[in-house]
Amino acid sequence: MYFENLEKEMENEENEKELQESHYLESNFLPHIALDCVVFGFDSEQLQLKVLMLKMKHREDWGLPGGFVGKRENLEDAAIRVLKERTGAKDIYLKQFKTFGKANRTDEIIEGNTNVLWLKRRFITVGFYALVDYKQVKPNKDKLSSDCGWKDIKDLPAIMLDHQTIFEEGLESLRRSLMLRPVGYGLLPEKFTLSELQNLYEIILDRKLNRGNFYRKVMKYQILEKLNEIRNIGAHKAPFLYRFNKERYDDAVTNGLKDIW
Amino acid sequence: MYFENLEKEMENEENEKELQESHYLESNFLPHIALDCVVFGFDSEQLQLKVLMLKMKHREDWGLPGGFVGKRENLEDAAIRVLKERTGAKDIYLKQFKTFGKANRTDEIIEGNTNVLWLKRRFITVGFYALVDYKQVKPNKDKLSSDCGWKDIKDLPAIMLDHQTIFEEGLESLRRSLMLRPVGYGLLPEKFTLSELQNLYEIILDRKLNRGNFYRKVMKYQILEKLNEIRNIGAHKAPFLYRFNKERYDDAVTNGLKDIW
DNA sequence: TCAAAAGTGTTAGATTTACACCCATGC
DNA sequence: GCATGGGTGTAAATCTAACACTTTTGA
Fold first, then answer.
1. Same-domain pairing of A159 and A216
2. Domain boundary among B178, B205, B238
3. pLDDT confidence tier of residue A214, bands split at 50, 70 and 90
4. Å from B5 (CA) to D15 (C1')?
5. Measured between beta carbons, which residues in chain A are less than 8 angstroms from residue B34?
6. For chain B, give me the number of helices (H) and strands (E)?
């Protein structure tokens, strides 16, 4: 009997919290509009491209970090805010890639048992992908989730709603843009070795690249600066460190480099 | 005095209409969400790429054809519906290219003098571009506009809101996609000559292409079917007619052809 | 001495670009 | 005959892909 009451009390408390959350959302954000981010991080030790995911409360499956657009907030700023809250990282490369607007895409939630009533309506979501420095990120769960962490893109858990599709289209979009322009700023730490860069490209494109040719190509576009530093790793020659020449890099990103890789 | 009353009456009538329109929108469409279409048509006589524009009531500038998303309507379906209403054309190629979400992008309207109150809120808009057969289209104005017609992309009138930006990004997106895959289905009539196709490509890409090389390239991808028909034009050899082989064309559109042109 | 890093050489083959030449045909 | 269309030839320049050789250097 006692336990039953305790449980009920806790349930009520949880209810109360969710109702408050619902009011907060109601008064601060645009209804029907969400955004979701496919946040990529490159684990250069395990040589894995990872994506940030959240485990939602009341659910067994995972979702992409997302959020809503403040009533007077620019769409892009909303995405930046969400990314900062979730990752703590600054220097985030963000790109909008597609808006998802199937009429029934959030029916699962509308019919589900959340008490955040504000969520119980149809949502259209704007998809962004983001490139962040894996090592700088401290995954941070939000109010609606119970866990937050990196998942290897080749080994994803069960995924809610249409977030699997959003992820796949985000990855495809990243691949395509790598064909047209350099990627890396954001995904790598400020200083990195050439083989880290090559590994990153191989993982994004999902194929091996020839080292010599890669070296010449990357040098030709002069987007890198060689530093007078070296990283000590193993029982062999220490690799040089490089960083992006921001000016040339931005130029290349803006104007594209035709299909390079 | 009499005229004054007449004017006032007409104003009242107009007011009444707009309020009704506002209620209609309120009960049928999602608030805050719009879509705008950059509709391209190829005028093969004047050799101009044209874009469909509307002149809004109460305004001197022009805008892109747009609309809203029905409460239970898929986003893409809404775009298709708007396009059909505005152009009468079937067989429309539609592609979403970007969502525009600056907080102040519709302030002009919020502060303007429309009585369609539903419009007096912030809107985020999803941009689509569409390719239609210029000759099949009968431009059709909507309730909120006073005129509708084709404009040469090299000679546009004054444009409202951020529709200039939306147009430019739509055109850029069309150009890019032409680099990766064939375009033309939709923009050309069912039957067309090779030089019409080449003209189209030259106008979209804004540069001359070598005829011989163009011929070989287009043939290599086998997306065309030569017909046993000829078009009689002038005092010279009549050109053959071609049409797209829909299967191969769709295949190429889906899988891309790397950078071709 | 080994293993990885850094840089360069080389070559076969494909692709691109630019011209140019041929024939056909409607008027 | 002439202007346009349709089709092919070709050579130079450039780019790609694959491989291999050299030197450096930390443990």
1. no
2. B178
3. very high
4. 77
5. none
6. 7, 10
Query: Positive or negative, the Cα torsion across B40, B44, B49, B50?
Result: negative
Of B32, B102, B103, the CB nearest to A32: B32
Give me the pLDDT at residue A6, please.
57
Q: What is the CATH number of the domain that holds B206?
A: 1.10.10.10
pLDDT confidence band for A152 (50 / 70 / 90): very high
The tally of domains found in chain A comes to 2
Nearest to B52 by CA among B143, B109, B131: B131
Q: Is residue A183 part of a domain?
A: no
Are both B22 and B71 inside the same structural domain? yes
**Residue B8: per-residue pLDDT:** 61
State pTM to two decimals.
0.88
Query: Are B17 and B133 members of one domain?
Result: yes
Res. A1: pLDDT tops 60: no
- A144-158, A221-235, B45-59: which range is least confident on average? A221-235
Instruction: Tell which A residues from 94 to 133 touch B, by Cβ distance under 8 Å.
Output: 96, 98-103, 122, 124, 126
| Residues ≥6 apart with Cβ < 8 Å to B165 | B100
Q: Is residue B184, in this structure, part of any structural domain at all?
A: no
Whether residues A151 and A240 fall in one domain: no
Distance CA A75, CA B103 (A): 7
Select from A32, A258, A259 the Cβ nearest to the Cβ of B33. A32
Q: Does B73 touch chain A if contact means CB atoms closer than 8 Å? A: yes
Q: Cβ of residue A28 near strand D, that is under 7 Å? A: no
Domain limits at B227?
A: 194-255
**Residue A206 exposure: Cα atoms within 13 Å on the Cβ side:** 7
Residue in B99, B126, B169 to test binding to A, most A beta-carbons within 10 Å: B99
